[in-house]
Amino acid sequence: RSKDEGGGRHFTYEPSLHAHAEERRQLEFSLRRALERNEFTIAYQPVVDATSEAIVSFEALLRWNSAEHGFVSPAKFIPLAEDTRLIVPIGEWILRESCREAMNWPSHVKVAVNVSGEQLLDPNFAASVVGALSTSGLPANRLEIEVTESIFVRDGTAAQATLEQIMALGCGVALDDFGTGYSSLGYLRKMRFTTIKVDRSFVQGAAKNAAESLAIIRAVVAMADSLDMSTTAEGVETEAELEMIRKLGCKKIQGYYFGRPMGFVEARGLFTRPSFQRQGAAA
Ligand code: C2E
Ligand code: MG
Ligand code: MG
Ligand code: MG
Predict the structure, then answer these.
(1) Any idea what DSSP says for residue 277?
(2) Which residues form the EAL domain (predicted)?
(3) How are the residues of the chain apportioned to helix, strand and coil, as percentages rounded to the nearest 5?
(4) Protein residue whose Cα sits closest to atom 30 of ligand 1
(5) Residue 55: which of 283, 242, 280, 275 has the closest Cα?
């Protein structure tokens, strides 16, 4: 069909746009019903101490098995949940559910929950954290909230105020995916995070001896140490990455090498074994 044809444009460009919008509309339709249909589950991924390899926490990761769409990746449905603000009730659900589950773990093991900007800016957020803690009985210091740098873009002052309320309760606040967003050291001066999570891309780079990744991790660890913040390396998959990250002095490690995100039964099972087994390479 010729481009000059009046209606050609219409037929050339719109079908894919339309298909995309239609897919999104259907996904949203299903997402609106997912909570009441009990389609969400939580996968727990262990975070271990870099020296002792003992489990220090689990990160709670949302999983959606949709009746209409099957398993949908968080990379796809989390942004949609954020755009539609469905992340507010869904986020409250995972917060309550994971605090409740953490009560089944040894009392030194924390739970980390991801929180989007939409949730932080919701006026009821702090109250929902208080509610999740009091209903479950989980001490505040066993809950860590994970946020990304993106929360500081829209309304940094409000986001910071809410995070400070959460920290005043005794909860930790981790800065997730550090180095991938609109990195600014400005908010590190204003806010004392509990932990900085170094993004997997730097971990991979360091293991390949990329000078930039090595230098950045070294600098982040030094800065975190002197500001009394902990560091977690994300996405450690191989022995080589583990050794490099250890050498660089990251305090905690998360990644397939030690454990993939798993169901609550399997997560609980890690504590009944005599010693924690690495399971990444084979899993
Ligand atoms: P995140 O918070 O950075 O979580 C870590 C992601 O890296 C998880 O992906 C995890 O499965 C994956 N991962 C962990 N270790 C490795 C590894 O060794 N190699 C590789 N290749 N990947 C690894 P997942 O579960 O698909 O979640 C993706 C993102 O979705 C999360 O990134 C987080 O930003 C968001 N998310 C997940 N659950 C929630 C939630 O309940 N609320 C909100 N607001 N966001 C969530
Ligand atoms: Mg996270
Ligand atoms: Mg992360
Ligand atoms: Mg990451």
Answers:
(1) P
(2) 24-275
(3) 50, 20, 35
(4) 74
(5) 275
Instruction: Give the position, in ligand 1's atom list, of the atom nearest the Cα of 261.
Output: 11
Q: What residue type is 198 in one-letter code?
A: V
Q: Which helix (H) or strand (E) holds 157?
A: helix 151-169
Ligand 1 pocket (Cβ < 6 Å) reads 45, 61-62, 74-75, 78, 87, 91, 94, 114-116, 146, 176-177, 235-237, 254-256, 261
Residue nearest to atom 2 of ligand 1 (CA): 114
* Closest ligand to residue 146's CA: 2
State how far the Cα of 53 lies from the Cα of 277, in Å rounded to an integer: 9
pLDDT surpasses 60 at 280: no
Q: Please identify which residue in the block is written with the tokens 């050291």.
A: 185
Do 280 and 257 contact (CB within 8 A), yes or no?
A: yes
Q: Is 60 exceeded by the pLDDT of residue 8?
A: no
> What pTM was computed for the model?
0.92
Beta bridge partners of 113: 60, 145
pLDDT in tens, 155-209: 889 999 999 999 999 999 999 999 887 767 888 888 899 999 999 999 999 988 8
Instruction: Round to whole Å and give the CA distance between 125 and 115.
Output: 10
> And the tokens for 19?
């298909």
* 66: three-class secondary structure by DSSP: strand
Q: Which of 198, 183, 176, 178 is nearest to 112 (CA)?
A: 176
ipTM above 0.85, yes or no: yes
